[in-house]
Amino acid sequence: MPKAWSLAAVALLAACQSTPAQPSPELPEGQPFADEQARSPVLGLEFWVHDVKAPMRTRAENGHDEVQTQIGRGEFEVRFPKRSTDVALRMISWTDRTIFALEPGQNFMDVAFLRPGTGMPDKMEGRMTLLLDAKAQNYYAGKRVQRHSDDQEKVLFQGVEERSDLKVDALFVIAVMDFNENETVDPGEYEYFDVRLPG
């Protein structure tokens, strides 16, 4: 080995030995991944469990972005920017990604779970139950939406619907807010979520 290469190798070895490896940051117990963003990038949604923000990150899946988070099986809440009018937050929840098929320009009448009359029954106010159905919507407006702060509103949930015919360890949720009220799927008005349910 040439002397120059030998000296370089010795220097590199000494540098490696003198710099201790940095330990990987540990995640809080039960947290599946690092929290990478404050809110969802399109609608600005946040998921909270017992006043602790749920971890959130966005990943590309099957040609579209999905926001990943984890809420568990008990009470939680969804916070979002204060609306200028009483535009509903619609949440369509199912057990697989087959519902992730919206296309900009679709009329609500042409989407099974967005047609008028597909809202599922729940309480008129208080804590909601996030109901599961691939052809219907959870519809949150009026007294179902509460003030959280000067610039945020929220929907409170007592939990996710429990069904004996479904084994659910993750939910796939579409959130829709028809800001311009044209009953059309528009960019900037919907978002996909992969919601994990441990325990």
List the helices and strands and how they pair.
Layout: H1 3-18, E1 46-49, E2 52-53, E3 56-61, E4 64-70, E5 76-81, E6 89-94, E7 128-130, E8 138-140, E9 146-149, E10 152-160, E11 170-176, E12 190-196
Parallel strand pairs: 4-12, 7-10
Antiparallel strand pairs: 1-2, 1-5, 3-4, 5-10, 6-8, 6-11, 9-10, 11-12
Can you offer a commentary on this structure?
The chain has one helix at residues 3-18, and strands at residues 46-49, 52-53, 56-61, 64-70, 76-81, 89-94, 128-130, 138-140, 146-149, 152-160, 170-176, 190-196. It is mainly β and 199 residues long. Strand 9 and strand 10 form a beta hairpin. 8% of the residues lie in helices and 32% in strands. 24% of the residues are buried. It has one helix and twelve strands. The model is unreliable at 7-13 and 18-24 (pLDDT under 50). The termini are far apart.
Strand content of the residues, in percent? 25-35%
Q: Name the assembly state.
A: single chain
Described by strand count, sense and barrel closure, the largest sheet is: 6 strands, mixed
Low-confidence stretches: 7-13, 18-24
What is the count of β-strands? 12
Helical proportion? under 10%
Please state the overall shape, judged from the principal axes of the Cα atoms.
Answer: globular
Order of helices and strands: HEEEEEEEEEEEE
